[in-house]
Design the sequence.
């Protein structure tokens, strides 16, 4: 008799719970309604980065312009998010597996590697933020000195163990965290609203270096587009397209601006651009610790979940839970080394590279809906050159329209929003290339002879 070991026995006993359909279609009995998906998306949007983004926008342009930039960004990005989510509800596959239709079975692995690296670094960044923020906040509030490396290691281990359960872990954490976080943030907002002047907040001048209006819209819309590429990871679990659409509109297109605008008002009303410091100053220290801890853990969970899904599409014969453990250990090590100070350039680069991926697979879906809905992956091409050309066109356009101080060339100006330019460039490029190919095929077909 062969002894498979304790790890193998545990994995076998947990097999139904570990199943995440990372390489197959989500079956009907596992699909969720819009309420569940909305909580998941709100959980993705509630975090320290959106709160700090709102504070930064107000500090650079004032509340009135910041609010307008956030709302316009939401309107611009909403159709793209809805289209990307719809692809997931039709294919019932993860983003990484869906990419195989657009880029081919081998080409999609290259794209999945980029997305996996993106999510891996986000996991490490949130882990480092957790360690630094909790350490400094606990020291300020209760005078206890905690070890940052110890906090990072504990957080990395706990979230990795939770995330091996796939979408279930994301869903359960959202059910627990979102109501509590929402309650704290709303209570804190009402508390400040009662003790500050709304009229004064609206006319308060910028607190720091000015941020251009177009730049603010580009930053916020870029956040939406970087999120949109991964929406199939979640909407593949939706009961149907309407449930996914409602969840995206309420959870993301409404949820994200609400969180950002909340931080915008608090900064404008108080003159403090650091949201965490603001909570500490006003005597909400314990609430600040809770918000930091839970939001970071929630974002770590979502990032590691998507990273493991992308890895599973590349490494086909290794169970996803093992890939999650490997990614979690690696991300924790990177967080210990330190990534926050080195991540800005990488984020700028990703804002140019990631949105065109969404442009390619959404354009390809609109022209080949039946193939996506069939979920037949066995007979796909290894490479799809037209998609790769369209992706390159979108990325090139992004570099051409991005300013020089943002790793771009500053050669042309289209919408003024580089993230939108890259999406439109790849989307229209693939659409035009496919139309051209169809025209060429029709003209090269032999003309049937007429007899009799």
Sequence:
């Amino acid at each position: 008799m062969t002894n498979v070991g304790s790890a193998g026995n545990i994995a076998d006993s947990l097999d139904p719970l570990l199943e995440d359909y990372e390489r197959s279609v989500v079956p009907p009995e596992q699909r969720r309604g819009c309420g569940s998906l909305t909580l998941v998306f709100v959980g993705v949007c509630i975090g320290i980065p959106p709160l700090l983004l709102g504070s930064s926008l107000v500090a650079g342009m004032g509340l009135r312009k910041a609010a307008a930039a956030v709302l316009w960004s939401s309107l611009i990005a909403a159709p793209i998010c809805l289209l990307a989510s719809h692809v997931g509800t039709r294919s019932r596959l993860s983003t990484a597996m869906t990419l195989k239709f657009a880029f081919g079975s081998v080409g999609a692995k290259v794209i999945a590697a980029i997305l996996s690296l993106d999510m891996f670094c986000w996991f490490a960044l949130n882990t480092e933020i957790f360690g630094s923020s909790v350490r400094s906040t606990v020291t300020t509030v209760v005078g206890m000195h905690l070890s940052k490396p110890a906090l990072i290691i504990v957080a990395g281990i706990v979230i990795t163990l939770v995330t091996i359960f796939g979408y279930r872990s994301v869903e359960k954490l959202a059910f627990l965290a979102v109501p509590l976080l929402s309650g704290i943030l709303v209570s804190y907002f009402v508390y400040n609203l009662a003790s500050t002047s709304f009229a004064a907040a609206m006319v308060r001048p910028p607190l720091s270096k000015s941020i251009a209006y177009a730049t603010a819209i580009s930053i916020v819309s870029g956040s939406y587009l970087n999120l949109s590429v991964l929406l199939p990871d979640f909407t593949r679990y939706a009961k149907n397209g309407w449930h996914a659409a409602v969840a995206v509109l309420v959870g993301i297109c409404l949820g994200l601006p609400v969180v950002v605008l909340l931080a915008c008002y608090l900064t404008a009303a108080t003159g403090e651009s650091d949201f965490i410091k603001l909570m500490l100053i006003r005597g909400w220290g314990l609430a600040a610790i809770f918000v930091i801890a839970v939001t970071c853990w929630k974002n770590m969970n979502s990032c590691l979940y998507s990273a493991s899904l992308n890895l599973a599409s590349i490494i086909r014969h290794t169970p996803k839970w093992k890939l999650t453990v490997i990614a979690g250990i690696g991300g924790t090590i990177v967080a210990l080394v330190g990534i926050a100070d080195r991540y800005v350039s990488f984020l700028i680069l990703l804002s140019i590279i990631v949105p065109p991926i969404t442009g390619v697979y959404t354009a390809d879906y609109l022209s080949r809906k039946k193939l996506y809905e069939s979920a037949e992956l066995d007979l796909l091409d290894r490479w799809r050159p037209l998609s790769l050309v369209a992706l390159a066109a979108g990325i090139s356009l992004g570099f051409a329209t991005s300013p020089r101080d943002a790793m771009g060339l500053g050669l042309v100006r289209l919408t003024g929003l580089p993230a939108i330019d890259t999406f439109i460039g790849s989307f229209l490029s693939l659409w035009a290339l496919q139309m051209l190919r169809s025209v060429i095929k029709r003209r090269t077909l032999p003309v049937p002879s007429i007899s009799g």
Remarks:
- The chain has 19 helices and no strands.
- The mean pLDDT is 84.
